[in-house]
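Q: what does this look like with nicotinamide-adenine-dinucleotide bound?
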Amino acid sequence: MELTRRAVLAGAPAVLAAQTRSQKLRVAFVGTGNRGSFLLRHGLDVADFEVVAVCDILPDRVDRAASAVAAKGGSAKTYTDFRKMLDEIKNIDAVVLATPDYTHRDFDLEILARGKHLYAEKPLALTVSDAKDVVQAAQKAKGIFQAGFQLRHDPHRNAAMKWIKSGNAGKVLQCHGIRHGGDLPRDIPWYFDKTKCGDIVTDQGIHILDLFRWAAGKPPVRCYGDGGTTLFVNDPPGRTVMDHYSLIYEFEGGAQINFSHHYFDPPGFTGIQERVFASGGAVDLIKAEFFPRTERRKVTLDVPDAGKDSTYMSLAAFAANVINGTRPLNDAQSALEATLVALMGTKAIYEKRVVTWAEITA
Ligand SMILES: NC(=O)c1ccc[n+]([C@@H]2O[C@H](COP(=O)([O-])OP(=O)(O)OC[C@H]3O[C@@H](n4cnc5c(N)ncnc54)[C@H](O)[C@@H]3O)[C@@H](O)[C@H]2O)c1
């Protein structure tokens, strides 16, 4: 089991498992918008996948998805209703779901209840109780549940995390993150409505917070922060999501997350940083570099799958997990903790107070 898990941590290609299988997994992609079409593009390169159906409520998006499948020599049936799709194509093994955040709880539950393996986009849900419902459903399910925290499978970040988890950097003291960029995509209206996306900590910041919670090895005990909307006020009209925030999370034993996220960044000015400071030195997760604390020296870590896209790696790991029955690195429990860390941060910002893990999980 441990060997298998290590192989998954290393992002072992599903190809290995395919050598002992004659049949591919029959996969359906539901929600073929911005993210779903990207998932499909990489899903078509996963050797163990056969894409048998695509579904979106918008017919032009389904047609585009079917054309992408055809361009790779496949053939996918098209649907605008995923329930009808699952009723009609009984032998679908797995679903890759990339519908808007506010649909996740209900769609996850329904697909899991039908016995399918499910790769579901983040966050788990927009409230604590809905997120717990997904975990409960995943625990009872016949199929495997893997959440769309693909950065865990990014070759550089994965190698850096292995370095940290092996103790090479010493005791984790502080995770420092910056996600500075331009505003959210204007052509996706629900991103600007906090009732639909849970606001930008839960919808966007969650990826880096998930990596940092993983680095810390446990959930935080409390958090505080500040944020709001100062540049993009009512822009686009009706906007209810923030355009900036800063959060500090504290862990038992003294470790800390310090995270700044905003949309004021001029192109190419700051960008994204994901750094873990530990007693023995600092690790740059994005570059997979280690800097010993007491020397002016850089260790470039070995990155076995350098150059491979994190989404491809994550889907390939999903295929391997389904075939081998192994636990995903980004399983329901880890996705729950990431979602709760994000909801906790959002609550701290909105209510301008310290919010505890005990309070959020009560
Ligand atoms: N992991 C990542 O890095 C990452 C990046 C971007 C988005 N996402 C996540 O992916 C999901 C989709 O985001 P997006 O940016 O693609 O949004 P989007 O609006 O571009 O795509 C969502 C698609 O779902 C379709 N849809 C809505 N209801 C549906 C239903 N009942 N059945 C079938 N299709 C339905 C929409 O028509 C749309 O095409 C969100 O959960 C988002 O958080 C993840």
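The CA atoms of residues 42 and 312 lie 5 Å apart. Residues 30-36, 55-58, 61, 82, 98-101, 103, 121-122, 148, 150, 188, 203 surround nicotinamide-adenine-dinucleotide (CB under 6 Å).
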